[in-house]
Design brief:
Blueprint (H helix, E strand, L loop, with lengths): L7 H10 L4 H8 L3 H8 L8 H11 L14 E7 L7 H22 L2 E2 L14 H12 L9 H7 L4 E4 L8 E8 L2 E9 L5 H17 L11 H19 L2 H8 L6 H11 L3 H10 L5 H13 L19 H11 L5 H12 L5 H8 L18 E2 L2 E2 L1 E2 L4
Parallel strand pairs: 3-5
Antiparallel strand pairs: 1-4, 2-8, 4-5, 6-7
Helix pairs in contact: 1-5, 2-3, 6-9, 8-9, 12-13
Length: about 400
């Protein structure tokens, strides 16, 4: 029996996580919409236990979740690619997932020392091009292609995860949280997308928001024009970060920029033909008409959505959060059950193991059954993920 007070906010969070409206949930459990609304809005803090059991089963959240108090972790805005074309319900669903992920990350970071993100000093930087070039220098990347941007950003202290999304209109999203007076950034991207070149651009786009934009304001409150300007800046940053002007210009300045030539360049740069064509125009190698002609040609040939090499080029999956959890299990800091229980006890977040696995992109049953692995000492770019037991 739950002795706490029912928390209507938690019902809203679980419902949003599943992408349900109040009406959807009411139909699912066979009770009036007004009943669900009264529970969620705090008008009824002693709900019928039988109805809560049905809600728990329908949404896949344990009953204690609905009686926990909300945490006090500082969470900033969430940036989305394609914000203006994505249904708000789907955006809210991913925002809720990122909010839960923020709590789980805070929990893990109390045991694991993650690589530290050092923000770029923007004092003398006025354009996305300058920001991209400065970040490459700041991270010691030079002007070569980035083979695996997920490894790169995780190595520099920005954890990445991937979720299934209910629509292909969602590409990627980023979230800021505050821990120990430090801003930590998380990036999520849709696992519906499998093209390495598109994933690379999506991650670079979110990196542009992290590097250049304000995180204390409500992104949803921006005007349409203000948001378009933010998106344009993040887009230009991603293009310049993935295709640095000096080296990419050298590759294209005397080239016959046909689809076969762009396909060869795509093998090297792991960036889409559409993005490279736009970058060629931005760098003054092609005219606007030539760029438009290339876009029309790709469209006529059915290559705007599925380009050449999209089914060939690969990129590695996020590993930072996965390895951190596996380290805690391998070093017997927690059993899988203890991990789930400690998250609930110390951070007021009771979740089923499969939900945590989804949020952290863990292999199925990682938190259900202990899976022995080789001893893990994660070393990335000189940063060691070390563990420490509290107590």
């Amino acid at each position: 029996m739950n002795k706490g007070i029912f928390n209507g906010n938690r019902l809203g969070q679980a419902r949003t996580y599943n992408g349900y409206t109040i009406k959807d949930l009411a139909v699912e459990i066979g009770h009036p919409r007004q009943t669900i609304s009264s529970y969620e809005n705090g008008k009824d803090i002693n709900p019928n236990p039988i109805i809560i059991q049905k809600i728990s089963e329908a949404l896949g959240f344990p009953i204690p979740f609905f009686y926990e108090q909300d945490g006090d972790i500082k969470v900033g805005s969430t940036y989305f690619r394609a914000l203006l074309t994505t249904n708000k319900r789907y955006r809210d669903q991913q925002i809720q997932k990122m909010a839960f992920l923020s709590t789980i990350y805070t929990f893990i970071s109390s045991y694991i020392k993650f690589p530290i993100f050092n923000p770029l000093d923007l004092q003398n930087i006025t354009t996305p091009e300058d920001a991209a070039e400065s970040l490459r220098n700041h991270w010691g990347l030079g002007i070569k292609p980035i083979e695996n941007i997920i490894f790169t950003v995780e190595d520099k202290g920005i954890p990445v995860t991937t979720f299934e999304t209910p629509t292909d209109a969602i590409d990627a999203f980023s979230q800021m949280i505050g821990i120990d007076n430090k801003n930590i950034y998380l990036i999520g991207y849709s696992s519906n997308k499998t093209s390495a070149s598109r994933i690379h651009f999506d991650i670079a786009h979110e990196l542009g928001h992290i590097i250049m934009h304000e995180w204390s304001e409500d992104v949803e409150a921006l005007t349409k024009e203000e948001f378009k300007e933010r998106e344009k800046e993040a887009h230009l940053f991603a293009s310049a970060f993935l295709l640095p002007k000096d080296s990419f210009y050298f590759d294209i300045k005397n080239a016959n920029l046909t689809i076969p030539m762009y396909t060869q360049l795509k093998k090297k740069w792991k960036v889409s033909i559409a993005a490279m064509s736009r970058r060629a125009y931005t760098l003054g190698v092609t005219s606007y008409d030539e760029y438009q002609n290339m876009m029309r040609l790709l469209q006529r040939r059915g290559l705007r959505k599925d380009e050449p090499l999209d089914d060939v080029l690969t990129t590695s999956k996020p590993t930072l959060l996965k390895m951190a959890v596996q380290m805690l299990l391998d070093e017997n800091i927690f059993t899988p059950k203890e991990f789930v229980d400690e998250l609930a006890y110390s951070f007021n977040l009771s979740l089923e193991p499969d939900k945590i696995e989804e949020l952290l992109n863990l292999p199925k049953d990682t938190l259900a059954v202990k899976i022995p692995t080789h001893e893990l000492r994660l070393i990335k770019g000189g940063n060691i993920l070390a563990f420490s037991k509290r107590g």
